[in-house]
Amino acid sequence: MKTKFLFILSLLTFSFANAQQVEADEEMNSAKGVTFQNGDMFLEGSIKISTGGDEDYYGFSPKFGYFLNDKVAIGAKLNYESSKTESTDTKINVFGVGAFARYYFLELDKKRFKAFGEAGLGFGSNKTEFEGVEDTDNSITADLNIGLNYFITKNIAVTFTLANVLSYNSVSPENGPSSDTFNLNINLFKNIFDQPEFGLLYRF
Question: Cα separation of 127 and 138, whole Å?
Fold first, then answer.
């Protein structure tokens, strides 16, 4: 009887330990408890397409990031935009490169939800064609944004860029004077979800 009792107890202990291991393995392969660490990398980007009506627009903005620790990442970014307005016969093409630094400051929902602040610096070339006449100008941009990632698996997250807190843009046309614009938006709670931008992130 004692031997039978010990056998049943051992079987129950094994079953419990096995169930715990299965649960731990499932959590490791899910989006729960996602954490960053030094050496992690990610690809992130968004595609914007708007056609029909008076204007057609295409935009592509990829990023590559490298984590210095569990909260800070640095990286490089590209930007390409093309638009055409039929009524004014205007075509605009924008190409830019830049760098950014990102800081994650908040985690919620078992670490699936991660909010961040991001500072970026970029250089761009803008080509405008109006009624057959071309004009090219160069620009320098700096900005500070607030966004978040929501992980749907341990490697894939949806990215939301919620607000542009600060932006600076300096444009130097080929023909004409340079212009500088600066915008500071501290009233985030009024418009934080006004026009959010969506993208995808892949962590590896």
Answer: 9
Contact call for residues 44 and 159 (beta carbons, < 8 A): yes
The DSSP code for 195 is S
pLDDT in tens, the chain (204 residues): 545 544 444 544 544 445 444 444 444 445 677 889 999 999 999 888 888 778 888 888 999 999 999 999 999 999 999 988 888 888 989 899 999 999 999 998 888 999 999 999 999 888 888 877 788 888 899 999 999 999 999 999 999 887 777 888 887 777 667 777 877 665 554 444 455 578 999 999
Give the contacts of 14 (CB within 8 A, at least 6 positions apart).
none
Token pair in block for residue 181: 């614009």
Residue 129: alpha-carbon gap to chain centroid: 31
Within 10 angstroms of residue 147's Cβ, the number of other Cβ atoms is 19
Relative to beta strand 113-130, strand 156-173 is unpaired
pTM, 2 dp: 0.74
What tokens does 68 get?
């210095």
Residue type (1 letter), 67: F
Q: What are the DSSP E strand ranges found in 70-132? A: 72-85, 90-108, 113-130
Q: What is the Cα–Cα distance from 101 to 36, expressed in whole angstroms?
A: 15
Element (H, E) at 19: helix 2-28
